[in-house]
Structures are given as structure tokens and as C-alpha cells.
Amino acid sequence: MSTSVTRQTFDEVMVPNYSPADVIPVRGLGSRWWDQQGREYVDFAGGIAVTVLGHANPVMIKALDEQAQKLWHLSNVVTNEPALKLAQRLTELTFAERVFFCNSGGEANEAAFKLARRWGSTNFGPQKHTIIAFDNAFHGRTLFTVCVGGQPKYTQGFEPLPGGIQHLPFNDVAALEAAMNDQVCAVVMEPIQGEGGLIPATPEFAQAARALCDKHKALLVFDEVQTGNGRTGTLYAYEQLGVTPDVMTTAKGLGGGFPIGAMLTTAEIAKALAFGTHGSTYGGNPLACAVAGAVLEEVCKPELIANVQARSQQLKGGLAELSTRHGLFGPPRGNGLLVGVTVADSWRGKAKAIVNAALAEGLWLLVAGPDVLRFAPALNITQTDIDDGLQRLDRVLALLAAAPSS
């Protein structure tokens, strides 16, 4: 077997559902990583809002190493200490009383949507099955979750699609009021639409959704896969909206890079997923739960949350200055270290071109659709790393502004 791999190897051996960059990272430390040629990059992407403690974090390494010498896998036929400890801690820190573990955000949302359907059917009858979701939402890549997500590009070619799902404009209270009825089993929303362009839910909209769910006996489901685990400046974003959901999903930053997802809910609602109704072979894996437990304790430290808020101000301030200086994008939005900017009209549809140019300059960014640049660095990123990344972005924007047609 060959030990030498390049970007071309991807095209030769991988299914072509991705189109990764030409560079191949081989090592990371904190908020920087290095490619095969030894070139250094500042990481403003965080593995798509995943590596909340950066790369090669010693706390995570210690937790993984200690658990690796005990138990790796058991399945759900028996339980394990790391899973129970993590579930116990999550219920202490949130509204929830019950936890279901899985391996990703998509799986967590799949569990939440199945719970909502079964809860409606069990308590009110099969007619209570409608799920209301919102345009431009993103909830995962399973067939069920892409259908609940409000982006048709992810469902094209996979028809026939599951029914009983209605999409509405986001932050439109009147539209939600008009659509709600007693056949709705759940309203599903992101506190900040991530893939849809970093659009925050207004407190008024979230509070109206809560009131309408109460009125029509429906579940309010918050998808906090991207916004959770300290990302927005509180442990979970629902804390900033003045509402408490009935069901919440989390993943991404929960494991800091180790695959894990979770669905959280109350004891009463959890009864709908009785024995045998749902499962996951790897869900609650001891390795994943041990790492996630260590990550959660770090994220809960006041000094880390303070850093999120301070670095958020620094990042937003720097982006606002770059916006004024170069005119390639508008003012920043978002909470904590989940920040987005909409590109100028002359760059509409070409946000990825800016990301590619930034990568060539040693800076890793993300897009959130074709018109939005997304920033989701580690929560413990330093002031120095933010400054360095903004300086690199400044150079990129200067080059692009000088040749806007490129």
C-alpha cells in the first residue's frame, strides 16, 4: 500500500460528494494548523464550529488517553460510566431531564424528529404529525433531516420525500400564527440559522413560537448543533432568547472534534421513545463521552465564556473596519464566535472565491451559502491569533478589491 497521498488521491478513491481544498492539513495546535508542505494557517473555521478548544488540546488528549486504556466500545446493550456522567452533567446544566446519545448533529435531529412524531401519535393520535420548519434552515443530511431543512438543493434527486413537513419564512410571526393548528406536533428552529446565512432568531419570534406551541400542544425543538456548547457566548443559545425548548439537539462542539451528538428533552416527553423505538450502536460510546465530558467542563469555565465574548468583540470590530476599508462585505452579525458577513453586491454568489483566496494567504474561513462568509474559530482562540487572522484577511481583501472581476 502506498504511503504517499495527495489531493489527487481523493479523486481516485473517494466518492465525489465533496470537493475539498488542494491543501492537506497534517498537524494542528491551538488555532493553527500546518499542511503537508509545512505551511502554517490561522484557523477561523474550527472544523465548521466543531473544534471549540482548538487542535491537540491537552485536556482532551488526557481524557481520550485515560479512557482508551479502559473501554472503547460496549454498545447500548449495557451502559458505561462516561455516558452516564456526561448525561448527568448535561441535565444539570440545561432544562433537560433525559438524554439520548448518537454520533452527529444529523442523527441528533433525526432522533428529535422521530420523537416529535411518536410523541404526537402516542398522546393525540396519528393525525398530529405535521412538523413546521423554516426556509433556509439546515438540520442534517439524512433523508428526514434534509426534508425538515428548508433548502431544496439538498433534496433534489432524492424524491419521493417524506411528507407532513411545512416550511415558513424565518422570523415571521404572522406566518407561524397562520400555519399553527392542532395537527402540528413540532416547530423546529435554529436559534441562529447557520448554513442559511447566520440569521439570528429574534426574541419576539422565539417567544411567539413558544406560546403557539403551548397553545396547540406542540413541541418546540431547538437545533443547537452549531450554536451550542459556548459558541454564542452562553452554554446554549436558548438562554439568550427568553424561552425554553421542549427538545434540544447538540453535537459539533460537544466533542470538540470527537464525533458525538445528543438529543435532550424532559422526562415526560422522553416517554414517547419507549424501549426499542430508536437506537444507535455507537451512541454513548465511552471514548466519545469521556472526551465530551472533558470538553463540557472546559466550556463551562467562566474564563472561557469571557474569552468568547471578548474575542467576539475583537473579531466583529476588525471585520467592521475591514468592511469600511475594502467594501467587499457588509457589517458583521451573529453572537459570540459564530459570526457572518454578507458579501457586497459585486461579489454575490462568490463568497467561496474569497474563502479560496484566504486559504492561499494562510487563513481558513467558511461560507454560509453563496453570499455569506462565516467565522467560527475555537472558543479559546487568543487575541494574537485573531489579530493575525484579520491581518491576513486584510491582505486578501486588498488584492481582491484591486481586481474585483477575478
Automatic annotation (TrEMBL):
Chain positions found as N6-(pyridoxal phosphate)lysine: 252
Cofactor note (record): Binds 1 pyridoxal phosphate per subunit.
Alphabetical list of Gene3D superfamilies matching this protein: Aspartate Aminotransferase, domain 1 (3.90.1150.10), Type I PLP-dependent aspartate aminotransferase-like (Major domain) (3.40.640.10)
Binding-site residues, pyridoxal 5'-phosphate: 138, 223-226, 281
Any one Gene Ontology BP term: L-arginine biosynthetic process
A GO term from the CC aspect: cytoplasm
Chief place of localization: cytoplasm
UniProt catalytic activity: N(2)-acetyl-L-ornithine + 2-oxoglutarate = N-acetyl-L-glutamate 5-semialdehyde + L-glutamate
Alphabetical list of SUPFAM superfamilies matching this protein: PLP-dependent transferases
Enzyme class: transferase
Keywords: Amino-acid biosynthesis, Aminotransferase, Arginine biosynthesis, Cytoplasm, Pyridoxal phosphate, Transferase
Listed pathway(s): Amino-acid biosynthesis; L-arginine biosynthesis; N(2)-acetyl-L-ornithine from L-glutamate: step 4/4
Required cofactor(s): pyridoxal 5'-phosphate
Gene Ontology MF annotations: identical protein binding; N2-acetyl-L-ornithine:2-oxoglutarate 5-aminotransferase activity; pyridoxal phosphate binding
EC number: 2.6.1.11
Family stated for the protein in its record: Belongs to the class-III pyridoxal-phosphate-dependent aminotransferase family. ArgD subfamily.
Subunit structure and binding partners: Homodimer.
Name of this protein: Acetylornithine aminotransferase
Source organism of this protein record: Solimonas terrae
